[in-house]
Structure formats: structure tokens, C-alpha cells
Write a structure and sequence with these properties.
11 strands, 44% helix, Rossmann fold, 2 domains, five-stranded parallel β-sheet, L-fucose Isomerase, Chain A, domain 2, four-stranded parallel β-sheet
Length: 347
């Protein structure tokens, strides 16, 4: 992940079932999350019965705790060690008003322990909780298997996916994208609406390509920062066949772009990668764009802001660099293969 995730945790309980299952389940879940270096916001065992949510009063306490930590919580894990109280869970989420991703998890029963002390019925309780969330209009997600042992590899896989979702939602709601230059006139496929993006919390900051080239041309070849950027470029990619002068120009271009991104807190960019750069400056931007993407600052060609949105979302979900390609050619008669390439990571 790009940034440590904090989860709000709701432990469901229903008094008809054994309390011991809740105390044990709560400890197992929290130990698992903390073992993965995930911060949690959860009721203490002294706040409510066993630190779980069952009653209206419990829901109010948990929701108030979540509201106090609104700026920390990236997602909410609902876990059901037993049947749980569907109203308590749904009321907590409604009252908290956090509007973050929600994952509903249920502990599995052991058919050899379906006794008054060991029966969970979380399988059934999860259906009821999800039904209530649907009625309340609260979006949620579930595990692929209806019940999952929290100590299993399957649970780790489920949590990895959910953490990626939380990271993506958090990042996209406050993303700052940079559009550098004008889109190619011939490519209406990359048109987009800034207003629609803004409605989702995504800001687009623009920069004219002439400002970039003007700033780059003012930098001296022997400027210490230019030389440092040149060393960085040479260390990143082979440049044996590239004229030394072109390498200096690439370094200056990279320095101007990185300065502008830093000054404006830009998360990702879309560049006018052709043909102004080639005609007016004499180099391509592909290497610099690839370097930015490799540093988890994705960059798309042709001022493809919509493509940049996709790259940034993929990066947030995976915690690794994302790439954008053109699907260029078929591969003989194989319908499952194609030839693709693009300026950026691939160049």
C-alpha cells in the first residue's frame, strides 16, 4: 500500500449465542490485523459488552468513536463471531456517516461444535446484516466464501483486496492530476470533463507546454540539479545511443516537471508527449514519464487524463507502478494475443 491503512472494526454480537465466541473472535481478528501493521479503531472491551455492538446504545457509542476518528478511518470491517445483531451493525454505520468501504466478514462454524457453547450461526447472521445494509442504502462488499476463518490464507487474500479498495477510494477522492499541454487535435478519444472529475473529488491542474519548455531552456547545463537529474536518468535506462545533448534536455525537462508537481502536490500527470516536444525542444518525454510512473507518480501520454485516472486507481489498489498501453496490432490469427506499446513505462 502507498500509505498505512486504518480500519474501523465493528464486532457483532447477539446475546442468544455464547459470549465467549465474541471475546475470542474479537481477539483473533485484532491480532490478525495488527500483525499486518493495520491500525484499528474499535470499541474497548470496557466500552460495551465485550467491546462488541448489539444494542442501540452500543451503536451510538461505536458511531461516535468512528466520528471522532473520521480523518483516520479508511474503511470498516464488520466481523461476526456469532450471529450478530443486524440492526446494531447497520445503525452504527448509518450514525457514523463515514461513507468509506465496508467489508462484512463471518466466522465459520465447525459442524462438530454445534452446541450451545460453540454454535455461531454467523452464516445466517451475515445474510441478515447485509440485508439491513441494503435496506439502509449503505454500500458494502463481502468475502468470496460466505464464511472465512480469520487465521486462513484466504482471509489474508480477502483483506489484501479490501485494503486495496480502501486505498483506492481514499486516494481517488482527493486526487490532484496535472494536465501538461494540449491534447492532440486528432485524438478525440482522450477528451474528458473536468467538471465530472471534480464532482468525484478529482482536481485537474493545468500547465501550458510553452511554460515547461521556457523553464527548461533557462536552466544551465552545469546546474547542480540538472546534473543530478541527468545521473538519475542515466541510472534508470540505457542511453548508449542517445546524443549527450539530448540527455541534458531530457534531464531539464524532468526537473521542471518534478518541481511543478512538487509545488502543486500533483499525484499523477498526462503530458502532451507529441508533437510539440519533438518539434520545439528536440526530445521525447517517454523516459521521464516512465521514471515518474516507477516512482508511483503515474504519467500518461497525449494528455489522456482519463487514462491517468485509471493508472492512478490501479496503482493505489496494487501499491505498484501502473502502465497504460495502446492495443496496436493483432498477433497473427491468435485472438488471445495482441501487440501493444505506448510512450511511458514501455518506452
Amino acid at each position: 500500500m502507498n500509505k498505512k491503512i486504518t480500519l474501523g472494526v465493528i464486532v457483532g454480537n447477539r446475546a442468544f449465542f455464547a459470549d465467549s465466541l465474541v471475546g475470542e473472535g474479537r481477539r483473533r481478528i485484532l491480532n490478525r490485523l495488527h500483525g499486518w501493521n493495520i491500525d484499528t479503531v474499535v470499541l474497548a472491551e470496557t466500552d460495551t459488552k465485550l467491546g462488541a455492538v448489539e444494542t442501540w446504545a452500543d451503536a451510538q457509542k461505536c458511531a461516535e468513536l468512528f466520528r471522532r476518528n473520521r480523518d483516520k478511518i479508511d474503511g470498516i470491517l464488520v466481523t461476526l463471531p456469532n450471529f450478530g445483531d443486524e440492526k446494531g451493525v447497520a445503525d452504527t454505520l448509518r450514525l457514523s456517516e463515514l461513507n468509506v468501504p465496508v467489508l462484512v466478514h463471518a466466522f465459520p462454524d465447525d459442524v462438530s461444535e454445534l452446541t450451545s457453547a460453540g454454535r455461531r450461526d454467523a452464516f445466517c447472521g451475515k445474510i441478515s446484516v447485509c440485508n439491513n445494509l441494503y435496506q439502509y442504502g449503505i454500500p458494502f462488499t463481502v468475502t468470496e466464501s460466505h464464511t472465512v476463518d480469520p487465521d486462513s490464507d484466504e482471509f489474508k487474500i480477502e483483506m489484501t483486496k479490501f485494503l486495496g479498495l480502501c486505498s483506492t477510494v481514499r486516494g481517488m477522492r482527493r486526487a490532484r492530476l496535472g494536465a501538461v499541454g494540449a491534447r492532440p487535435d486528432a485524438f478525440k478519444t482522450v477528451r474528458y470533463s473536468e467538471k465530472l472529475l471534480e464532482a468525484s473529488g478529482i482536481d485537474v491542474t493545468t500547465l501550458d507546454m510553452s511554460e515547461v519548455l521556457g523553464a527548461a531552456e533557462k536552466l544551465a547545463d552545469d546546474d547542480g540539479r540538472v546534473r543530478a537529474k541527468l545521473d538519475e536518468v542515466n541510472a534508470y535506462a540505457s542511453a548508449d545511443s542517445v546524443p549527450p545533448r539530448s540527455m541534458v534536455l531530457i534531464a531539464k525537462l524532468g526537473l521542471v516537471l518534478s518541481d511543478w508537481m512538487g509545488e502543486n502536490d500533483i499525484d499523477a500527470t498526462a503530458l502532451q508527449c507529441w508533437s510539440s516536444l519533438q518539434q520545439n525542444y528536440g526530445v521525447n518525454a517517454c523516459t521521464i514519464m516512465s521514471m515518474m510512473s516507477d516512482k508511483l507518480m503515474p504519467s500518461a501520454c497525449e494528455v489522456d487524463i482519463a487514462g491517468t485516472v485509471s493508472m492512478y486507481a490501479l496503482q493505489l489498489a496494487s501499491g505498484t507502478p501502473a502502465a497504460l498501453v495502446d492495443w496496436n496490432n493483432n498477433y497473427q490469427n491468435d485472438p488471445n494475443k495482441c501487440i501493444y506499446f505506448h510512450c511511458g513505462n514501455w518506452a
